[in-house]
Amino acid sequence: MNAGDKPAFPGGWLYDLDRVTLGRHLVAMGLPDYAATQVFQWLYKQREPEISNWTNIARAHRKVLAETFCSTLPRVEKESRDSAGTRKILLRLLDGKGVEAVWIPGEGRSTICISTQVGCVMGCSFCATGAMGFERNLSMGEILAQVLVLARFQSEAGERLNIVFMGMGEPLLNPRAVMGALAVMTGDPGMRIPDRHITISTVGLLEPLAELEQRFPRVRISLSLHAADEATRRRLMPKAALLHSIDQLLAYFSQPRHFPVTFEYVLIRGINTSRAHARRLAARLAPIPGKINLIPVNPVPGCPFAAPSPAEEDTFLRILVSAGLSVTVRRSRGRDIQSACGQLAGEAGGRV
Ligand code: SAH
Ligand code: SF4
Q1: 45 and 98: one domain?
Q2: Domain span at 202
Q3: Do 199 and 145 contact (CB within 8 A), yes or no?
Q4: I want to staple 132 with a disulfide (CB 3.0 to 4.6 A). Which of 80, 222, 233, 348 is the partner?
Q5: Does this model's pTM top 0.85?
């Protein structure tokens, strides 16, 4: 979809409309409300953007829909693929901005990693998106479109999906669009993806997080912690660390919840990987039901940070495990195509 490719559509872009709003539009146009359910089924179940192919809707109604709404998905401008089949795309948005998203194949279930903003205001010192600065929030439709475009890579129609909000941007700085997209992803009519297969990764903005968890209590939450002391967290996440203290974050996740949180901890040699760091992390997290995901830092151009040696990583892991914590280590896929965690940067790095 290019700016200038199409005439103005008075009803706007269909992917930006929730089911209720679309129903109101359709009723105002003289169509029945149930036509909104049919439209949702075509968009999100059949994944068919071409209105003329919506055969269970009367031809005259299809004509008026096509005159009123745009249903074109953003254009895939570039695509790259690594040896394991991970595929990264750059989507060109209506205003010319680019956003990256990643498809990761898996046994019977692939994972789609999506972005919520173009750039990010948080400026975490180890993240390529943070280095871009913030450009704008994505709309609900722009978030959903990433899933629809990447789902085309699925090998079979019945293959199931995991969705992870771990691409560009901080989801809870764009909560309205993110929650709107979650409603369509989990809804029927909608994509009907079970909410437990969706993960939101956040630096921890507790107000929008509480609202999101109230509306979608089974969506998995990953908290980007990265440090067990304030000074180190401020060094790595200068803005996020000002929002809430580690104490406040841990108090929030100590409350009863449907699913335990996953604490994400990027391992950066010489910064947060010593034995003392591991012991402090173990002491702070031991009382809280949750898992720890260690992520050896992925290389980001212009950033001097490096992952610890295997021996240092192993020592860190053992200290946590011997404190009784449940720990996994994320071996990022797609590093060679710059599509692993923290490596998405739209066009800023020109690396697709
Ligand atoms: N803004 C959200 C979600 C997007 S980042 C957040 O920060 O949680 C998704 C995950 O990638 C976060 O845990 C983030 O800390 C991690 N990440 C960012 N840069 C990284 C890098 N260079 N190497 C490894 N993980 C990184
Ligand atoms: Fe933003 Fe997350 Fe990157 Fe920090 S790690 S700059 S919050 S995208």
Answers
A1: no
A2: 75-337
A3: no
A4: 348
A5: yes
* Residue 178 is assigned to a structural domain of this protein: yes
Distance 127 CA to ligand 1 centre (A): 6
CB 181 within 8 A of CB 137: no
Q: How many domains does the chain have?
A: 2
Distinct helix (H) and strand (E) counts, the chain: 12, 14
- Which ligand gives the minimal distance to the CA of 166? 1
Give the C-alpha distances (Å, rounded to integers) separating 193 from 103, 109, 111, 159, 271. Answer: 16, 12, 12, 11, 38
**Looking at residue 301, what DSSP letter applies?**
T
Task: Give the tokens for residue 159.
Answer: 């293959």
For residues 161, 165, 166, 168, the Cα torsion angle rounded to the nearest 10 degrees is: 120
Q: Are strands 117-119 and 134-137 parallel, antiparallel or unpaired?
A: antiparallel
Mean pLDDT of 146-173: 92
Give pLDDT tens digits for 267-318. Answer: 999 999 999 999 999 999 999 999 999 999 999 988 999 999 999 999 999 9
For residue 238, say if its preceding peptide bond is cis, omega within 30 degrees of 0.
no
User: What does DSSP say about strands 98-104 and 109-113: parallel, antiparallel, or unpaired?
Assistant: antiparallel
Distance of CA 229 to the CA centre of its chain: 27
| Secondary structure letter of residue 266 according to DSSP | E
Among 99, 124, 239, name the best residue to mutate to test ligand 2's pocket (greatest count of ligand atoms within 8 A of Cβ): 124
Q: How confident is the model at residue 3 (pLDDT cuts 50, 70, 90)?
A: very low
Nearest CA to ligand 1 atom 25: 341
Q: Is 310 buried (19+), middle (13-18) or exposed (0-12) by CB count in 10 A? A: exposed
Q: Is residue 2 part of a domain?
A: no
Q: Specify whether 33 is located in the same domain as 146.
A: no
Residue 341 among the catalytic residues: yes
Q: Ligand 2 centre from 9 Cα, in Å?
A: 34
Q: What is the DSSP letter of 73?
A: P
